[in-house]
Amino acid sequence: MSLALDTTDAPILEVREVAVHFSGLIAIASMSFAVPEGEIVSLIGPNGAGKTTAFNVITGFLKPTGGKVLFRGTDLTRLSSNRIAGLGVVRTFQRTSIFAGCTVFDNVLTGMHRQGRAETWGVLLRLASVRAETERMREAVAEILAFVGLSHRADELAGNLAYGEQRLLGIAIALAADPKLLLLDEPAAGLNPSETEAFMGVVQRIRDRGVTILLVEHDMRMVMTISDRVVVLNHGRIIAEGPPEVIRANPDVIQAYLGQGVKHAKG
Amino acid sequence: MTTRLLPWLFVLVMAVGPLWLGDQYILYVLTSTGIFIIGAMSLNLLLGYTGQLSLGHIAFFGIGAYTSALLSLGFDLDLGGAEPFVLGPQPVWVAFLGGILVAALFGFLIGKLAFRVRGAYFVIVTISFAQVMRMVALNWVDLTEGPMALNNIPPLSVWLPWDGVIPLYRKEYNYLLVLAVAVVCFLVIQRLVQSRVGRALVALRENESLARSVGIDVTRYLVVATVIAAGMAGAAGGLYTHYIRIVDPDVFMFIYTVTMVIMVVTGGKGTLAGPIVGGLAFGVLPEVLREVARPEVQWIIYGVAMIVVVFFLPQGIVPAVKNWFAGRRKRVAATALGLRKETSA
Q: Which residue has the higher pLDDT, B323 or A6?
């Protein structure tokens, strides 16, 4: 499917020479990569390579020391995180992140926030437009819950869900925000193999809806199966970039990222 | 259907019951408790729904009280110019609305500040804010009469078809007025928290990073909540000042904020009925105890009752009752199901 896309198109996201220093400590030295529209791009690298830092910079949770992040030509580094989400750049978090005290349904409904227009006065006066909007959003929530397979848990408190279901709910909340570009931070962390399998299906179906995906993941089987392109980060620098089969064969990557284990594995 | 009617039934009982009893002392207790319940409901919007602990909430109450009092009495203000600024007495309702507006304005400033300083620092800033207000009220004698207090504040007035415009000296009318304002505040909070705006507030309480990641402008909604909460507290202050008809700097005392926090926490923070249930319990309790126990024993019982509630019902009275009913419904359903199985077997 990705082959059909015209690669000369401007990328949806372009990270240009981004640097992040924490008072002398260099988290990211200089990072540049691009995410083409409609693809699944994975960002991989050993622990501490700067992957989550990169996510935080892209989504405005962290201001970079230098460089630019362009989303469809708009520089994101000057914007607040909620404005960035408003443009359609939505992330999930490495640690499970849900509104634990609310029902599953309300979690997703809260995620729909930027698709609503109701404000204080409209709410207090109970305008017809506000009621129609609520009705529309509730239908959309039901659709999203069906999409990730959580419909049967709609009325449960989110905090009571099983771990795997909470991860799915995290995705559902992000989907509710109507992303153009979805950043997934280790979505399969802590899932068992069959849950991971189901998760890969969900991620691919999200891409098939026209959402571009930037993925940080340690599960190499998942990365190599679903990615259209892989970017490898080590010590805050990009050391390789390309389709999964090229990355798999790259000696630098094997050396830096996969280490000696591969040699042993290959015998 | 019954759950929809229940609150209105409660309002009806509260409106008719005390008047039917006709006891002036009961009316006085319920009126002053009602005023504090309005304050507690507004505090609940911040503490219960956005999760921000403002321990200076009484400042908005006091600002509403003083502003409303000053506007209705008229005042002159020497700002160092050639002529002092003089404002004659204003109609009481204009003064009352003025109190709400000025309190809401301070709410706006505190709301803005809440996003610069968070957590423990915010708590300290809000306590200091209330203390500073008390010092201002105490020392700006030209305006506030300081410890001599503002006296002879006119009562609120109302237009009645059979009497025309009458000032509300009678306890019955004041009580009904407080009840009416409480109902309005309840409806405002109810509509707000069950909407997109309310979900944004709860999102801020539950998980701020996640809220921002889905595009919720948390700063904006926190400011909206503080402005509304401060305005309501200001309204409660206005009711207080025109009911008691005297206001002194002690209105800013920390203990009143604590009283409101107790009402919210024991009743159940983040629930609509919580501040009302907690407010009635802990507002009326001291008055009941006054009849039966010596002063020192009263406060010991009060303290013990509070600890018992917080210890055994950490979520508050309202969530505990709700859970109990939900559990009972489940048990009943399970028994019914079991019986059906037995009969079919």
A: B323
